[in-house]
C-alpha cells in the first residue's frame, strides 16, 4: 500500500495548501477530519495538525484525544495544531496583545534540530493567529523565535513531535518548503508519489475493486471526467459504459465536438439529447442551490434509466475532484455550495459510487492526463461546472437565455485563443445577468440584457485572482458580443477574487 502523511483538519482555510505542498514534494497525503484518524492497518508515516478558525480556549474548539498517535508517529502541529499540542499537555495559550498576522522574521535557536535544518537566520515566515503560546509544558523545548513571538517553534523531547506557530504551507513563508521537507525526512518518506505512480496504483486498485463489474460514467467534456474515463477504461475496458448528456446547458456546438473527441480516445460513449427534460425540470426555478439540486437529480434520473437499459450495471463513475469535496462540506459543517457529483446516491438508483480522482487537485488531474497520453485539447480545457450554463444564467433558465449565453461565451473563449490568452488563464466564461439596461443601437433605444465576463488565475480552484486581461482585448470582445449577440447591449468585467467571491457566480 502507498505510504501517506495524514493531515488532521481543524478547519483552517489553508489546510489544502499543506496537502499541495507535500504532494509537490512527491509524498502522498490525505486530509481527514480532526477526529477521524484512519485505522491502524494503513501505512501512515507521519501526522500534521492543521490550523483552525478557533482559539484553543474557545468552548467550541476542536479538542481531540491525541494520545493514540503521540509517540507512535512523527507529528507536526501548525498554528492551532501547535497551540493545541502545548495546551493539551498543560502549557499556556493566551490572547496576544496584538493579533499576529502577516510577515515575521524567524530565527532558529537550535540549528541542530532536524526541523530547522537549512533554515537561515532572519527567514521570512507568515503568521496568522490571535493567540500565542506563553508557556511550554515540561519536556517541550523552544527551537525558533521571532521578534514578537518567543515560542515560534518547539519540539517535544524524546518524541518526534514538533510545533510551529507560523504557516509553512503559504507562499509568503520563504522557508516553508524546506521546513516541510525536513519533516518528511524525519518521517523517512520515500518521495515516490508521481503521476505515473498514481496511475499505476489507481488502475491496480480499480481492477481489484471492480473485478468484472460494469460501470456507467457521466462524461461532461471537461478534463476531470475525461481523465476519469481513461483511467477506468485502462482498468476495465469494455465494462465501462460512458454517457454524455446534452442537458441543454453546454457550450455552443459542444455536444458534437466532444463526442468526436471521446470516440478518438477509444471510449464506448452514448450521446443522449435530454434538453427538453432538463428545461422542463428547471422551468421557473431561480434559486441557485435549487437549480443545482434539480440538475443533479435530473442527471441521476437519466443515468438510472440508461443503466437499467444497459443491464447489470453495478457502479456509477464520477470525476469528482478534491475542491468539489471541500466546498460541498467543510470541517465546520458549513456548505459553500453543493456539487451534483459529490456525495451519496439515492437508494432508488441501486448503484455504488466510484471516484478515482476524488483526492486530486485540478493541476494534478492535468498532470495525470498528460501522463496518460491524452490529447492536449482535452487536458487544457478550462474547468466547466457539472450544472453547465445553468449556474451561469442568474435567475430562471430558458432556451433563449441559453442561446444568448452560448453565443457570448463562444466569442469570449475564441477571442482568448486568438490573442494567445487562453492558456494563460485558469478559467474564463460569461455570465448572463438578471439585469436589463438601456442602450442605443443606431438611432434606436434598446432595453436588453447585460453579461459579465469572468477570467481568473488559480492553481487548484481553492483560491483565485481575477485575470488582468489587456484593455484592447476586452474592448474588442465587448464590441463583438454587443454587435453579434442579439439580446445583449452591455458587457462588464468581473474583478472579484476568491475569497471572498467564488469563481462561479452561483
What do you see in this structure?
Helix content is 31%, strand content 25%. The protein folds into three domains: 4-186, Class I glutamine amidotransferase (GATase) domain (Rossmann fold), CATH 3.40.50; 195-379, Rossmann fold (3-Layer(aba) Sandwich); 398-493, 2-Layer Sandwich (GMP Synthetase, Chain A, domain 3), CATH 3.30.300.10. The chain has 506 residues and is α/β, with parallel strands linked by helices. Helix 4 (195-210) packs across helix 5 (223-236) and helix 7 (275-282) packs antiparallel against helix 8 (288-310).
| CATH top level assignment of the largest domain | Alpha Beta
Work out the helicity level. Answer: 25-40%
- What would you call the quaternary organization? single chain
Strand order of the main beta sheet, please? 2-1-3-4-9-8-7-5-6
Q: From the alpha carbons, calculate the radius of gyration and give it in angstroms.
A: 25 Å
CATH topology-level name of the largest domain: Rossmann fold
Assess the beta-strand content as a share of residues: 25-35%
Stretches where pLDDT is under 50 for at least 5 consecutive residues are: 332-344
Helix/strand class: alpha/beta
Residue-averaged pLDDT: 89
The dominant shape is globular
Number of helices: 13
Q: Can you summarize the main beta sheet?
A: 9 strands, mixed
How many β-strand runs?
18
CATH architecture of the largest domain: 3-Layer(aba) Sandwich
The first-to-last residue Cα distance is 40 Å
* Integer count of domains: 3
Write the CATH homologous superfamily of the largest domain. Answer: HUPs
Amino acid at each position: 500500500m502507498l505510504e501517506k502523511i495524514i493531515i488532521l483538519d481543524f478547519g483552517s482555510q489553508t489546510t489544502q495548501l499543506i496537502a499541495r505542498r507535500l504532494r509537490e514534494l512527491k509524498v502522498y497525503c490525505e486530509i481527514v477530519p480532526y477526529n477521524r484518524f484512519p485505522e491502524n492497518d494503513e501505512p501512515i508515516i507521519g501526522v500534521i495538525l492543521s490550523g483552525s478558525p478557533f482559539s484553543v480556549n474557545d468552548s467550541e474548539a476542536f479538542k481531540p484525544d491525541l494520545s493514540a498517535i503521540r509517540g507512535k508517529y512523527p507529528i507536526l502541529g501548525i498554528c492551532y495544531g501547535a497551540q493545541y499540542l502545548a495546551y493539551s499537555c498543560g502549557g499556556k495559550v493566551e490572547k496576544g496583545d496584538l493579533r499576529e498576522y502577516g510577515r515575521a522574521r524567524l530565527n532558529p535557536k537550535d540549528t541542530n534540530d532536524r526541523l530547522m535544518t537549512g533554515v537561515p537566520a532572519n527567514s521570512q515566515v507568515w503568521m496568522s493567529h490571535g493567540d500565542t503560546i506563553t508557556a511550554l509544558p515540561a519536556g517541550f523545548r523552544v527551537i525558533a523565535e521571532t521578534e514578537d513571538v518567543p515560542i515560534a517553534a518547539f519540539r517535544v523531547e524524546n518524541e518526534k513531535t514538533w510545533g510551529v506557530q507560523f504557516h509553512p504551507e503559504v507562499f509568503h513563508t520563504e522557508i516553508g518548503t524546506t521546513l516541510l521537507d525536513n519533516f518528511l525526512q524525519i518521517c523517512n518518506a520515500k518521495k515516490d508519489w508521481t503521476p505515473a505512480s498514481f496511475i499505476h496504483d489507481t488502475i491496480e486498485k480499480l481492477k481489484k475493486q471492480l473485478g468484472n463489474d460494469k460501470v456507467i460514467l457521466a462524461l461532461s467534456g471537461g478534463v476531470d471526467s475525461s481523465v476519469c474515463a481513461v483511467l477506468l477504461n485502462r482498468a476495465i475496458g469494455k465494462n465501462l459504459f460512458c454517457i454524455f448528456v446534452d442537458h441543454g446547458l453546454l457550450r455552443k456546438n459542444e455536444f458534437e465536438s466532444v463526442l468526436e473527441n471521446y470516440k478518438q480516445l477509444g471510449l464506448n460513449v452514448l450521446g443522449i439529447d435530454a434538453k427538453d427534460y432538463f428545461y422542463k425540470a428547471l422551468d421557473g426555478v431561480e434559486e441557485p442551490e435549487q437549480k443545482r439540486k434539480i440538475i443533479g437529480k435530473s442527471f441521476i434520473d437519466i443515468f438510472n434509466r440508461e443503466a437499467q437499459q444497459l443491464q447489470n450495471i453495478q457502479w456509477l463513475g464520477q470525476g469528482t475532484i478534491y475542491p468539489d469535496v471541500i466546498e460541498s462540506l467543510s470541517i465546520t459543517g458549513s456548505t459553500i455550495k453543493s456539487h451534483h457529483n459529490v456525495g451519496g446516491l439515492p437508494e432508488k438508483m441501486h448503484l455504488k459510487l466510484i471516484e478515482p480522482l476524488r483526492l486530486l487537485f485540478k493541476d494534478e488531474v492535468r498532470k495525470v492526463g498528460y501522463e496518460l497520453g491524452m490529447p492536449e485539447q482535452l487536458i487544457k480545457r478550462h474547468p466547466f461546472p457539472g450544472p453547465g450554463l445553468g449556474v451561469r444564467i442568474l435567475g430562471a433558465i430558458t432556451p433563449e437565455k441559453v442561446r444568448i449565453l452560448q453565443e457570448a461565451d463562444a466569442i469570449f473563449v475564441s477571442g482568448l485563443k486568438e490573442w494567445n490568452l487562453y492558456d494563460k488563464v485558469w478559467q474564463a466564461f460569461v455570465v448572463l445577468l438578471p439585469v436589463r439596461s438601456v442602450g442605443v443601437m443606431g438611432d434606436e433605444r434598446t432595453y436588453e440584457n447585460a453579461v459579465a465576463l469572468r477570467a481568473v488565475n488559480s492553481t487548484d480552484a481553492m483560491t483565485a485572482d481575477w485575470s488582468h486581461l489587456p484593455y484592447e482585448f476586452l474592448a474588442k470582445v465587448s464590441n463583438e458580443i454587443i454587435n453579434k449577440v442579439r439580446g445583449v447591449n452591455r458587457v462588464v468585467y468581473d474583478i472579484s477574487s476568491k475569497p471572498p467571491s467564488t469563481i462561479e457566480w452561483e
